[in-house]
Design the sequence.
């Protein structure tokens, strides 16, 4: 007896669902369009015209990142809107530390099964965040791969392209002994440390995400899904005024792993961890995981999502400017000469 023909859908890939997802997200993509975008949704590639950039000697800056296992929290709760903000804000922060502003963005959504409503919710968040940054969403990919992703799995990755004037590139070369460190408050875990947080806080009991631990004042799920904060709008005017010597985005690797990337070899950053109050969510993770304090400071941002290195005599002015934008900020340390055998970043 002849076997029935095997279709792509039978093999696990629903082309119609993918097409429906694309149809639903077109409106959100269109909201991000800027005059420099020359392509339409659905093309093989996104077209962006660089003419009109105000930079005298423009240099393109690119970055790619993912939301990681924060998507596991979103999937457990069926809430996908905030993760779109996460990926754009994370990528925008990554190029901001080099002095760049965003131009355009591309996203990748991979899933065990493409659910059009789910994809549309993710892209809505990406679109809203792009609009907030004046950044065009000019392309993307939605892939249904049941042989790669497990049941219920969904992945989100983004690529950002920005621009910076060549003589305004931040690379740590402006950092000098005596500079102050300004810590800018995070808005939760942002997009790092979720593998540790998930295992410590709820393990294989996702129903705990809907409960509200006394110290948090909100549900565990809400705390874990707080969007990755963007520091672009509050820091861009300060960058334009030349008041920032360097920036460090505190992501995987924590304060030691990221601040060290912008400290010159002859210098050392001394960070006083008592200069800010660690938020309750981080304390709860520490309590439940029983991880050493040093491990927590390498895995998590511990309440500081960005560090600005500024001149000592402008530290209070910069701190106040950030605070006036609605984000708490503290002077958390200083740059010193590095002694023999000393680390680039010392936390005390």
Sequence:
């Amino acid at each position: 007896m002849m076997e029935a023909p095997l279709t792509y859908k039978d093999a696990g890939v629903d082309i119609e669902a993918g097409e429906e997802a694309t149809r639903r997200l077109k409106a959100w993509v269109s909201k991000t369009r800027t005059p420099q975008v020359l392509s339409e949704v659905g093309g093989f590639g996104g077209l962006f015209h660089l003419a009109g950039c105000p930079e005298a000697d423009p240099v393109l800056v690119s970055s790619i990142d993912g939301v990681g296992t924060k998507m596991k929290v979103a999937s457990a709760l069926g809430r996908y809107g905030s993760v779109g903000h996460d990926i754009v804000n994370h990528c925008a922060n990554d190029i901001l530390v080099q002095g760049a502003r965003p131009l355009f963005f591309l996203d990748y959504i991979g899933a065990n099964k493409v659910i059009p409503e789910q994809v549309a919710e993710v892209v809505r968040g990406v679109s809203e965040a792009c609009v907030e940054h004046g950044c065009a969403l000019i392309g993307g990919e939605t892939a249904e791969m049941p042989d790669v992703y497990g049941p219920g799995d969904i992945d989100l990755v983004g690529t950002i392209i920005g621009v910076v004037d060549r003589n305004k590139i931040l690379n740590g070369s402006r950092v000098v002994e005596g500079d102050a460190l300004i810590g800018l408050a995070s808005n939760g875990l942002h997009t790092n440390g979720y593998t540790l947080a998930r295992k410590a806080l709820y393990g294989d009991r996702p129903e705990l995400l809907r409960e509200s631990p006394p110290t948090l004042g909100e549900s565990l799920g809400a705390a874990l899904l707080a969007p990755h904060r963007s520091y672009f709008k509050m820091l861009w005017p300060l960058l334009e005024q030349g008041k920032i010597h360097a920036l460090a985005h505190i992501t995987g690797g924590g304060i030691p792993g990221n601040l060290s990337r912008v400290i010159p070899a002859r210098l050392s950053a001394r960070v006083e961890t008592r200069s800010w109050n660690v938020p309750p969510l981080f304390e709860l993770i520490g309590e439940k995981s029983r991880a050493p304090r040093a491990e927590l400071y390498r895995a998590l941002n511990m309440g500081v999502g960005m560090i600005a290195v500024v001149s000592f005599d402008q530290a209070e002015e910069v701190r106040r400017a950030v605070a006036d934008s609605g984000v708490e900020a503290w002077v958390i340390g200083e740059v010193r000469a590095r002694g023999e055998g000393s680390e680039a970043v010392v936390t005390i």
In short: DSSP finds twelve helices and ten strands in the chain. The mean pLDDT is 90. Strands lie at 58-66, 101-111, 136-144, 154-165, 180-185, 246-249, 267-271, 304-310, 329-337, 345-347. Residues 248 and 261 are 8 Å apart (CA to CA).
